Amino acid sequence: MKVVILAGGFGTRLARDIRNDASGKYKELLHLPKSLLPIGQKPLLSHWMKLFQESDDIEHVYIETNDCFYDQFMKWSQEWPDFISVVNDKTSTNKSRLGAVAALDFAVSSFGVEQSDLIIVAGDTLFYSDFDLSKMIDQFRKLKLENPTCSLVTVYDCAKDDVVKHGILETNSQNRVTMFLEKPQPDETQSRSACPCFYILSPAALKEVSIFLEDKKNSPLTEKDATGNFLNHLYKRLPVFTYKISGRFDVGGLSSYLECVTYFDES
């Protein structure tokens, strides 16, 4: 099994928050990609690398990033020279960014991993420390015995008032996805299952990425950017199941970054 980390974003919201912070304490973070922000004395992605290196199931990690941050990722990755590969998507501004789904397609084709089961990770997210990668992989493999084309995606319970901030999944009694709702109102669904970008996709599911992008080729970037839009396409065509986690941090802005730092400093 291989891993693709999507780290092609430009961190515009975080940069805005830092510039607007009156204390000036976080100015030194402005030059860093979100994926390499210091958390618990090491870069965010180094937390994932610890999990991936400890797993007997992970063969290699592939990172997709942009032209602005490529050199930083290359320097960071030298700690694991035989375990990490980095690709530059050649974009240099937020306006020209590929968007997450196109970035995934670019990474898969660049590295030639279309025939592998792939773990897909958003580079600006971290899970709580009780996350067990081996259990998720085991569940995926058991599901594949009866559903060879299936995928497995993470979910966690969010508060009622936070439903409007997330992609929400509804499932049946077998934890198979039956509906995807993008930032619904709380009264639109009984589900509180938020779905972060940490998926295990089968080769059959990976083929659907290019199909999705072809269908959306004339659509605005907002319809192609979030990976949840791809999930909305995927569950209608192939089986998608959910794996419950206790929670996660989305390091999108300064406040969420500081929450993540506090958690890992205390854990």
Structure description:
By secondary structure, the protein is α/β, with parallel strands linked by helices. The chain has a single domain, classed as Alpha-Beta Complex (Spore Coat Polysaccharide Biosynthesis Protein SpsA, Chain A). The chain is built from nine helices and 14 strands. The chain has helices spanning 12-20, 44-54, 70-77, 100-111, 133-146, 203-215, 222-225, 227-234, 254-266; strands spanning 2-7, 38-39, 42-43, 60-65, 84-88, 118-122, 125-127, 151-157, 167-171, 177-182, 193-194, 198-201, 240-244, 248-250. Strand 4 (60-65), helix 3 and strand 5 form a beta-alpha-beta unit. The chain is globular and about 50 Å long. 38% of the residues are buried.
State the total count of DSSP E strands.
14
Largest sheet: 8 strands, mixed
In round numbers, the mean pLDDT is: 95
State which percent range the strand residues make up. Answer: 15-25%
* Through-space gap between termini: 29 Å
CATH superfamily caption? Spore Coat Polysaccharide Biosynthesis Protein SpsA, Chain A
Give the topology string: H per helix, E per strand.
Answer: EHEEHEHEHEEHEEEEEHHHEEH
Name of the CATH class:
Alpha Beta
